[in-house]
Amino acid sequence: MPSKPKRIAEKSPAKKTNRSIDDEVKSAIVWLKAHATDHTLDGMARYAIPSDNAFGVAVGDIRALGKQLGRNHELALALWETGVYEARMLTAFVAEPARITSAEMDRWCRDFDSWGICDALCFHLFDRTPHAWAKIEKWAGRKEEFVKRAAFALLASLALHDKRAPDAPFLESLPLIERAASDERNFVKKGVSWALRGIGRRNPALNAAAVNLARRLAASPEAAARWVGKDALRDLTSPAMVKRLAARRGVPRR
Prior knowledge:
Layout: H1 21-34, H2 38-46, H3 59-69, H4 73-81, H5 85-94, H6 102-111, H7 115-124, H8 132-140, H9 145-161, H10 168-180, H11 186-200, H12 204-218, H13 223-236, H14 239-248
């Protein structure tokens, strides 16, 4: 199991309203409907995002509403229960990382029905929680497509955002990547590649380890593993990446 570097949880702002949570949810739904467009709704289908319980609101607008509302965990829980795609997306920007429980993360993860909601929660919320590393190992072994993707979307998010984490937990996560690389489901293998590329981008030592794994996968007899390996190699051995990592050599780690 990867060791768990300490995360610094975000502080929630002081509550700015005395309105009930039900009123806040209703107000958010009204706002979302007002910012919906047919163009956005139609585009969801092209990106394999279910639109039967969605309004068609751009992610940038959802994020702007989240910034306006501030962190409010009770509101986030209520928004999730609506089942509306955009309301659930909004929880990524409203839920309080320090307050979300392990059980809540599992429950929300089981509800994931697209890469969009999976990645948004992992990238903007789950990677800031104290449960993040434990969830990677747990979810990586699950069979559900978007639960399994969440493990690797979360690992990729930590690789990008957690600047203070040591190399050890990322190195210890490489076997999880290797085991999952043979999963032929499109959204799983893309999540696995994302995690491998994210690790290999952090520094020269992790790049070397990630490239070594990518080369093994690229030579695999399994098609999915070969795809993951080749996809990661293109990024991690590109001239731009080599130049970027070379500039970091000799710079002491904090």
